[in-house]
Amino acid sequence: MAGSLQQYGQRVLRAFLTKPAIVAALPAAFWTLYSLGGETALATMAIAMPILIVAMGTQGARAMVASSTGQDAPSTSARAFESLAAQYLQEGQNRTKDTALFEVEIDNLADIETKYGAATAVQVRAMTSARLRDLLREIDLLFDRPGGQYSLCLAPLEHFDLALCVQFAGRIQAAAEHPIDLEGQTIFATVSVGFCQAGRAPGPSFAEWRDAAQTALRAAKSGGSATIRAFTAEMTAQQQRNHSLTAELPRAMTDGQIRAWFQPQLSTDTGQISGFEALARWEHPALGIIPPGEFLPLIEAAGLEEKLAELMLCNSCDALATWDRAGLNIPQIGINFSHSELQDPEIADKLAWMLDRFDLTPERLTIEVLENVASSAPEDIISININKLTKMGCSVDLDDFGTGSTSITSLRQYAVNRIKIDRSFVIKSDQDPEQQRMVAAILLMAERLGIEAVAEGVETAGEHALLAQLGCDHVQGFGIARPMPFDQTVPWIEDHQSKIANIPRIARNG
Q1: pLDDT digit string (tens) for 405-432?
Q2: Is the full-model pTM beyond 0.85?
Q3: Other CB atoms within 10 A of residue 388 CB
């Protein structure tokens, strides 16, 4: 208890003496003291000041020097941050107080730098740092890490529970994501936050506490941008699993564990197969099917996206060629291309080479592009590459339509052939009038622009029938067929064709 009181007193004294206003007033205070008490009073203060600084501790002395030079106190030194945070950890692990270490990262800093330039990215980092500092008390800690990452540590508080931690993480996001106006441009940054309470730290050392908070941050980022995660013991086991799976990725791609599976798309007008979408799946020999949401972020983090894209392209072209030899009429396959893959300046040449290898024409391949990717500026490398692919003869599907920010101009800019209506609009559309109106509005826009529409996530016969009546051109989802490995596609195709041979056409409205 005595140690805690001493540390508390040190923090209060440090907070007082490191205030800019106090530091600025020190010369005037010394002069006033000399005027009133003469050399004796001045000598007494000269002896007392070092004693006060020693009472503050070494880190407090550093903080005072930093304040007097106009620097940011705890955030100027990694060693200072870690030393004070370690003290807070010890205090926070008692029964009456708690604290938390927050790890924060700007999700889209690379995109901001690509779009607005390196100087703007530096300004965004600096402004974000300033906003985070404004959330903190004098005795809280902030360390500005490279690459748009920040560590925040709060001095121990009474009753600082999980709910208050989540609330503070929300304040961090709100402050960092407030629009930034720079030189007439409004920039929107998003941040992910991971945190670990001192009472839930996996060990007594600062390193273990920091690793736990960073593990929570990685979990947040894997859940998508602008996400908050609190550290749990299960995350450690997941992190170990991720390390193991990452080490296995190169071999898994080479020996066929990771390969393309195919999900059919049907024409609502004829019932015939209008294409397939190629989807990456991992069949692990010991763990079974590993969800794409688990292994795709590992591929991205390992820098293997280009290798995966080549594998998916090769699998898809091989499937088309095999179906052709079997006399099965499959018009095209859609392949998803990520943001980084579409930045490859050689992507058009790679596709042309692969098509030539399998003796296929470009219109047999459809490039599926996420809606947020398609919002790039016309001079962006992504825009240039998409336009190269369309000039080759490839089709373009705009994926997850309705969830991003694509304008009608973008639809025409990329000569989009089809929009894929996101499943969030499709689910229960046969039961929910509001859903029906949303889908109808999207379909009307597509019709006026001369663009076909594919509804994703169709799971019931009622949804299928409604979409056909509303004029949706194609449907895809579990209600038609789940993604399947290639060796199951031929029997499925033959079975489907036999089923629809004598089925009457579903009438459309109008």
Answers
A1: 555 666 777 778 898 988 888 988 888 8
A2: no
A3: 16
